[in-house]
Amino acid sequence: MKTGTIKRALTAGVVCLAGFSLAACETPGVSDQRAADRLNNPQVDPRNNIASISQVLAKNPRDASALNLRGTAYGQAGDGERAIADFTAAIQINPQFYQAYNNRALIYLKMGRYDAALADYNQALAIKPDYAGAYVGRGNVYKDQRNYPLAVADFTKAIELKPDDPAPYYSRGLIHQAMNDHRNALDDLNVAVNYRPDAPDPHFARGQSFMVMQDYKKAFEDFQVAGTNKVNNYEAWAAAGQAAEAMGDRKEAAVAYKRALQINRESRVAYEGLRRVGGEDA
In this predicted model, what pLDDT tens digit does every residue of 198-213 receive, in sequence order? Predict the structure, then answer.
């Protein structure tokens, strides 16, 4: 049976787009369909997922697919060491399990263990050279290391293999931003937003490029979406205040700055912005 893509909750940073999403896999050894279904449901507590998959493994400890699934659940729960242990066990049972290599690499990437992440991504690609997800993951390693040419090459390859995946467009757009190439950044971020209009981070990134391009109205709209669609996103509301202020709309700027301060009263950007536009401290 095919379990579908297991995604980490959309918190802190790069959404499901380019950050930390655990790979889909074929799981013929998992006899408990309900366990897999629960794991694919983002509303289910990952601790319940772990318990469900552990029941499967109690019956068959050498079920590599179940180990991979439980590893994803540990990853969702933030328990990287146990996730790595499960992925490693899955690989020992099935050395061709490229999804488990990819998933373990994602955990290493999250931990900042770049050499280990690169080794696993390279192994996943050695087994399956057309695996777009591994190109995205390896590109993110290179991006974090500021090796932009290699990162762009991997994201571009991922786009060639899977052109409807917003993740490599988003990450490649961030690299263009880092290189102060905002026109190309907007080209990539527009695609990412079109594929995932509900995802806050591509909107936030696109808003930053619009600010540099002095298109303050579009920047304001993107920051509003980012603030609305991501819980406690005070940075987006502070940025929306800056965009509104740049448009000359002091009333909208004050509203946005107040929303940022309601979430985080320590936001210096929002506090100073609110004082500039003559609003009252939230």
Answer: 999 999 999 999 999 9
